[in-house]
Amino acid sequence: MIVQQIIFYAFALVMVLAATMVITVRNPVYAALYLVLTFFSAAAIWMLLEAEFLAIILVVVYVGAVMVLFLFVVMMLDINMVPLKEGFIRNLPVALLVAAAMAVELLMVIWSKSRFGVDLFPVPPPTPAGHSNTQALGELLYTNYLLPFEVAGVVLLVAIIAAIALTLRKRTGIKIQDPARQVRARRDESVRLVKMKSEKPQGG
């Protein structure tokens, strides 16, 4: 048990430090790499809680797909971060005040002996042999949390449709492609044959 606690606090410390670096570094590429480290640390903590399915999904989906796409977009766009950080110093006192309030609340939750105390959340007992974390999560989603799961699916579907509609809307001054017109293109519309008389080279 002591070894598990040491591993937990080690990954938790790495995750907090990496999450802090995400919002403090100037280079967006470095911020994305620190976010990858944060995801890996969170996945390791979930593995300690025997939530293997969630840990693998976090690594495969977020680290393997979302963050790679994010890095690709950041590198291709070459975003100028100077205008985005112009008001950072001006809003720093408010940010520090909010951060301090959140830290105090977290400490109250951790050290309080009331109904929010840590005594109500002991270390979970080890699961028996043959236990499937994926099966247990699926049974819980499709029984007790079926309505929230379906609502989340509908919200994501609406977000996808809205993103496609905003992308395909016609705007002035922007060049767009018409796939139907490209498919209907014929050879005589794009290629022109020109007949020219041959000329003898000079001095020949």
Short descriptors:
Four Helix Bundle (Hemerythrin (Met), subunit A), 3 domains, about 65% helix
Q: Can you walk through the features of this model?
A:
The protein starts with a helix and ends in a 14-residue tail after the last helix. Helix 2 packs antiparallel against helix 3. The chain folds into 3 domains: 86 residues, NADH-ubiquinone/plastoquinone oxidoreductase chain 6, subunit NuoJ (Four Helix Bundle (Hemerythrin (Met), subunit A)); 40 residues, no CATH class; 34 residues. The chain is mainly alpha-helical. It is built from 8 helices and no strands.
Overall geometry comes to: elongated
- Shape-level CATH architecture of the largest domain: Up-down Bundle
Number of helices: 8
In the CATH hierarchy, the third-tier topology of the largest domain is known as Four Helix Bundle (Hemerythrin (Met), subunit A)
Within CATH, the superfamily of the largest domain carries the name NADH-ubiquinone/plastoquinone oxidoreductase chain 6, subunit NuoJ
In the residues, how many domains can be counted? 3
Question: Ranges with pLDDT <50 over ≥5 residues?
Answer: none
Class from secondary-structure proportions: mainly alpha
Structural Rg: 28 Å
Give average pLDDT, whole number: 80
Q: Describe the biggest sheet?
A: none
* Beta-strand residue percentage: under 5%
Distance between the termini: 95 Å
Helix content: 55-70%
CATH secondary-structure class of the largest domain: Mainly Alpha
| Total number of beta strands | 0
